[in-house]
């Protein structure tokens, strides 16, 4: 039993005509006849009654037609699904991100252009998001300062600086920017291992000769912000993460200006996929708009 045989049978059963089936399939009538004959002989079954100038289905033919009609209906649904997916009018896009801010800006832009695509965002720290990208758990990710890897394409989005955050009554809350020396002398609340924020701050402090010995380690930027807000110490986040909390003050860390590069990353082997190309186009436009907003 071959696909072509079932296709020929279904067409004849649907149209009750060998010649019309041949026209529908774009092949000759003898070719249709040969496919039906082979199907009947190989399976020792009679599928059509040939009477005069017409044909009708036998009991076995009716039973098989019930199966093939459902089979080819599902085939058509699959074709429509794949076409919609290719045209980005339906389907799901799974993204990763090490923070919500730039990621949501990109998703909002993408959804304006492709409202039929359901977008799922998986948040994690830099280490877990990178692992999700390289192990194909997500189709792309928005993350800061990704490592160099020949398997992965990196598209820059936005540069930003790191900010020290502290309670409003903290001495560092007065004045302008702060230095790593000021930061090192305070009760430091740091992010967990695997965080991009932690990695950049730790490297800068060690490079500056200050060492790195946080008094407290917390597993998310939200936890760090909350600990700072209730007066437990000082922390650090990137510039776009300081908005919207009147309980804390934020000051630039002068040694870490432009230390953060948010990027769109994806496996290079997927670069020709329509959804990835569309994400790249959205990322280019977003990068321009964010750059203007930060001027």
UniProtKB/TrEMBL annotation:
<dbReference type="Pfam" id="PF03466">
    <property type="entry name" value="LysR_substrate"/>
</dbReference>
<dbReference type="InterPro" id="IPR036388">
    <property type="entry name" value="WH-like_DNA-bd_sf"/>
</dbReference>
<dbReference type="GO" id="GO:0003700">
    <property type="term" value="F:DNA-binding transcription factor activity"/>
</dbReference>
<dbReference type="GO" id="GO:0000976">
    <property type="term" value="F:transcription cis-regulatory region binding"/>
</dbReference>
<comment type="similarity">
    <text>Belongs to the LysR transcriptional regulatory family.</text>
</comment>
<protein>
    <submittedName>
        <fullName>Aminoethylphosphonate catabolism LysR family transcriptional regulator</fullName>
    </submittedName>
</protein>
<keyword id="KW-0238">DNA-binding</keyword>
<feature type="domain" description="HTH lysR-type">
    <location>
        <begin position="1"/>
        <end position="58"/>
    </location>
</feature>
<dbReference type="InterPro" id="IPR005119">
    <property type="entry name" value="LysR_subst-bd"/>
</dbReference>
<dbReference type="InterPro" id="IPR036390">
    <property type="entry name" value="WH_DNA-bd_sf"/>
</dbReference>
<keyword id="KW-0805">Transcription regulation</keyword>
<keyword id="KW-0804">Transcription</keyword>
<dbReference type="InterPro" id="IPR000847">
    <property type="entry name" value="LysR_HTH_N"/>
</dbReference>
<dbReference type="Pfam" id="PF00126">
    <property type="entry name" value="HTH_1"/>
</dbReference>
């Amino acid at each position: 039993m071959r696909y072509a045989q079932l296709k020929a049978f279904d067409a004849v059963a649907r149209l009750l005509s060998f010649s019309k089936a041949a026209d529908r399939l774009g092949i000759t009538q003898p070719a249709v006849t040969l496919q039906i004959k082979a199907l009947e002989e190989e399976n020792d079954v009679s599928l059509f009654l040939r009477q005069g100038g017409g044909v009708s289905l036998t009991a076995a033919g009716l039973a098989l037609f019930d199966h093939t009609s459902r089979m080819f209906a599902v085939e058509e649904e699959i074709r429509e699904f794949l076409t919609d997916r290719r045209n980005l009018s339906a389907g799901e896009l799974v993204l990763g991100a090490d923070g919500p801010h730039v990621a949501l800006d990109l998703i909002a832009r993408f959804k304006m252009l492709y409202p039929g695509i359901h977008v799922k965002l998986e948040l994690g720290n830099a280490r877990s998001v990178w692992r999700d990208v390289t192990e194909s758990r997500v189709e792309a990710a928005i993350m800061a300062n990704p490592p160099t890897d020949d398997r992965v394409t990196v598209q820059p989005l936005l540069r930003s600086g790191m900010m020290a955050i502290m309670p409003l009554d903290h001495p560092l809350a007065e004045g302008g920017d702060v230095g790593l020396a000021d930061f090192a002398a305070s009760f430091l609340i740091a992010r967990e291992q695997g965080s991009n924020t932690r990695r950049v701050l730790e490297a800068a402090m060690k490079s500056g000769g200050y060492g790195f010995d946080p008094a407290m380690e917390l597993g998310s930027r939200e936890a760090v912000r909350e600990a700072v807000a209730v007066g437990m110490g000082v922390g650090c986040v990137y510039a776009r993460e300081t908005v919207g909390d009147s309980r804390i003050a934020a000051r630039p860390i002068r040694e870490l200006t432009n230390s953060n590069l948010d990027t769109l990353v994806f496996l290079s082997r997927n670069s020709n996929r329509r959804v990835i190309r569309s994400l790249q186009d959205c990322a280019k436009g977003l990068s321009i708009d964010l750059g203007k907003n930060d001027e």
